[in-house]
Amino acid sequence: MPDQRKPRPVAVPDSAGNYPWRPEASDPASLHAAGAGVVAAPGASFSTIADPAKASPAANEPSLPDVLRTTDHRPGPLPDRPWAMQQRWNDLLFAHWPMPAAAIAPTLPPDLVVDTFDGSAWLGVVPFGMDRIRIHGLPSVPGARSFPELNLRTYVRERGTNRAGVYFYSLDASNPLAVAVARAVFHLPYFWAKMQMQYGPETGRSRQIIYRSERLLGTSRAGFSAQYRGLGLMAQGPLEHFLTARYALYTADRRGTLLRGDIHHLPWPLERAEAEFERNDLPAAHGFTLPHCAPVLHYSRELMVYVWTLQHARPGRSFAQILPQAKAQPSPVGSPIAGSVSVQHP
């Protein structure tokens, strides 16, 4: 069914060829038409383009009450405490590969088990841009309102409760403050990286995203370079539900205690996608060898996300009790085979 949303303004490049931070399609309905390739144009790096906090909200963006009141798609109710952080994920690519469950299981904390679809575990690389970041009850943090992020993830279930969630092997971000807070407070494996997120010209059908990341610190140095775009055809099915209907993230503290963070968002508005991967060191940097098959690709234009403070996965004290004032801290959100390939979700 064609998208009935109202058209949004077309992004216009300046004299240097740079586009605003998040260009919008001039006609969302046209995203459902197949289009020719897009030639990338020069663009400013993510950290130097217009401040998204000054942009007016999108006309079709659900209000806060609408998002938090829409819960029928969730496997369970929202937490009975206030959310800790709000953020919007933009121009996101899901790239997933099937993996042997035996290759994933040894890398997980003891209280997590591999979640499988059609007998396979799945490893995902997910680049995107993040903005509209707000900590509940606090003003915006200067310099931390928008930045790109890139993560390596797999899908798990909590032993004992069978609750489905996401387990992150790494999260690269260009904002050093966000990296420091996420590592110190939320025990998530964030890495500081030099990152760029650029855009090709608007064609009326889709816009190509040019994404680059180079990890700056740490022993597991990793780089990523890709170009991708949505094709407009909505991708819906059991696999899409398995990969994206996840409302919890898992991590472990230095003592090995499993922690869970609740997440809420509306169902993902997915499109089929195509991508060219020029470089990908992420899986190898974390001990994985990808299969020699094309990844399953999906694109999402935008999604509002709400995150809660972490708790012990097993009954006990909440993370906010372990770390006083944790609710005032930012909460995190949340590679193809090397060589250039162009693939599309079948």
Please provide a written account of the structure.
- The protein has 346 residues and is mainly beta.
- It has one domain: Beta Barrel (Acetoacetate decarboxylase-like).
- Helices cover 10% and strands 35% of the residues.
- The chain has six helices and 14 strands.
- Strands 1, 2, 3, 4, 5, 6, 7, 8, 9, 10, 11, 12, 13 and 14 form a 14-stranded mixed sheet that branches.
- The longest helix is centred in the middle third of the chain and has 11 residues.
- The chain is globular and about 50 Å long.
- 42% of the residues are buried.
- The N terminus and C terminus are likely disordered.
Arithmetic mean pLDDT: 75
Fourth CATH level, the homologous superfamily = Acetoacetate decarboxylase-like
Q: How far from one another are the termini?
A: 20 Å
The assigned CATH architecture is Beta Barrel
Q: What is the succession of H and E elements?
A: HEHEEEEHEEEHEEEHEEHE
Number of strands: 14
Q: How big a fraction of the residues is strand?
A: 25-35%
- The portion of residues assigned to helices is 10-25%
Q: Class by helix and strand content?
A: mainly beta
> What count of helical segments does DSSP give?
6
